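To: structure desk
From: M.T.
Subject: fold request, one chain
Message: Could you run this one when you get a chance? Sequence is below, nothing fancy, just the single chain.
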Amino acid sequence: MDRNEAHDALASADATATRLRERRARPRTALIVLAGAATTALTALYGLAVQPSLPYAVPVLLLLPLFGLALYTATRPVLARRHRAYYAVTTAVGAGLYTVTVTVGSACFSGEPLWWWPGAVLCAAPFLVIAVLDRRAAGRAGEGAR
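Reply: Done. Structure tokens follow.
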């Protein structure tokens, strides 16, 4: 491969990456924020209204938005530098926050709003962090395309 062919291949790869970033839909950020709101609502509902009468296996079902977030972050086709690591750490921290909130809350703070509301809001924090990272990446891609 000579120098011109390498230059053309790099230009083609850059154009493809730019197209993929541009096609990325903005509504995905809104869906991430809505999933975070759903996590907050479901966690608070479980802890405040439903938790004493349900078996301990039910909180696993409430992890569905977090599983969706993990799938979303794992399947991003083109990412800004280090975003895979940010996504992995953020999702793991979110799982840890949820586990602590539900486990400690179920054992010690059943039906206590002072535990469940802040815990539910903290469970939504990873969704907001990833939404902000996605927004910034989309903004940088838009600037690079100009």
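Reply (cont.): The chain has a mean pLDDT of 79. Let me know if you need anything else for the meeting.
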